[in-house]
Amino acid sequence: MNKYEIIANEMRNRIKNNVYPIDQPIPDEVSLAKEFNSSRMTMKRALDNLVAEGLLFRKRGHGTFIIQSAIQDDHVHVVSNEILGLTNLLKDKKIQSKVIQFEVQFPTEEVAAHLSIDQKTPVYYVVRLRIVEGEPYVLEKTYMPTHLIPGINDDVLHDSIYNHITNVLQLKIAGTHRKIRACKSDHIDQQHLGCKQDDPILEVEHVGFLDTGIPFEYSFSRHRHDKFVVTSVNIRR
Amino acid sequence: MNKYEIIANEMRNRIKNNVYPIDQPIPDEVSLAKEFNSSRMTMKRALDNLVAEGLLFRKRGHGTFIIQSAIQDDHVHVVSNEILGLTNLLKDKKIQSKVIQFEVQFPTEEVAAHLSIDQKTPVYYVVRLRIVEGEPYVLEKTYMPTHLIPGINDDVLHDSIYNHITNVLQLKIAGTHRKIRACKSDHIDQQHLGCKQDDPILEVEHVGFLDTGIPFEYSFSRHRHDKFVVTSVNIRR
DNA sequence: TAGTGGTCTAGACCACACC
DNA sequence: GTGTGGTCTAGACCACTAG
């Protein structure tokens, strides 16, 4: 654990436990740096993290303040935590996967473009229903270049593609680009997610890329509207 | 303009203009710092920004690489740019506002909690249809404590509440917390957004807070599903 | 082992807000 | 003016990767 993380954790606890008055600035950076026996840059970095979390706000020339509305609800960054795949995001829950479709295709122009490949490079097309604690949770449609992610089979699909990529193939996932939108549900959604005909879907379009910068996955995750919310925090700089 | 911003801009241009081979690491931080006549920390900070934008990725012990899929589409951070309100986000477009409802209420428990006030503190309740280039764009339902945001009237509502807050009241908006979800449209959505009965809605729940850390706005923005997408980029650290 | 990015330091000066 | 956060420096050491 780095020093700035240790300091950030301590400060987060203090703030949540009301050690600092909510309507006053917290102590200035120089004093805090002295208290934590760190340089001011390191102290600042710790506070930067809490600012990014939406817990603190800075007023240049004035001080660093607690965001009142942040203390009440414990908001979670779904967006930024979900890089690791569902199996790792919901570690404590029982997750099952039902494979609905699994084939090899030549990609459409759109899929090829998002994967940075040409249309003659074959891709896996996987449709899976992810079931969390016995409840249908999300329907995932995934395209992956076969040459990048070899060895996909039923065992992998029933477990976790992400674990296969990171543990078996020893590849490293670097990040994702996402688009979030609302859609009508189609009959496949209704059949597998158990939603009604007029229930909407929260769709997350997703490009995942490896630590080489190469995209390895282009997917559409279709969520029941009543079971999935994306949260985000934005602090002005 | 700060030095790290200048450097980031230059590097962004170089990357987008293919100055650096896409499958190779870009020059190392020490060399780049020397080239830009900066310290390594400042160089790193410039690159940090490009990493946050989803343009670059770092491999510790190896180098800094270009994310291939990032160069193709010019993805925009809707989430992080929208703090300033619709009028400022879509500056070049013609925006009209139709006031559908405007009253003063005692807040429900939920609204009071999100605004950090008690249920005896009156709030404005405003429902507005925002029309962009003549097309219905979003239906906004907004709660604001009357004592924090005084002087709301029809003129303000037809222009921009955000401009009233920042220019007239001279308050400073610090940031927002958001939740994004899909909903069914109700008859009010259908009537004003011109969507069909089975069209879904992309709803953004939103708490805005001032640079004092005090929440001033709790709102629900209901978007036509075919005209609004939220994008996000996530890079693992 | 050499080279890369990650962290941390101690100090400097600047920009801004309040008195 | 005084005190705050914002930026920047020059250098150090650590952690990781590749050959």
How would you describe what is shown here?
Chains A, B: Keywords: DNA-binding, Repressor, Transcription, Transcription regulation. Chains A, B: GO terms for molecular function: DNA binding. Chains A, B: It comes from Bacillus subtilis subsp. subtilis. Chains A, B: InterPro entries: Bact_HTH_transcr_reg (IPR050679), Chorismate_lyase_/UTRA_dom_sf (IPR028978), Tscrpt_reg_HTH_GntR (IPR000524), UTRA (IPR011663), WH-like_DNA-bd_sf (IPR036388), WH_DNA-bd_sf (IPR036390). The structure is a homodimer of 237-residue chains. With 237 residues, the first copy, chain A, is an alpha+beta fold. The first copy, chain A, contains 10 helices and 9 strands. The first copy, chain A, has a 6-stranded antiparallel beta sheet with strand order 3-4-5-8-7-6. A two-stranded antiparallel ribbon of chain A has the order 1-2. At the A-B interface, α4, α7, β6, β7 and β9 of A face α4, β6, β7 and β9 of B. The structure holds a DNA duplex (19 and 19 nucleotides).
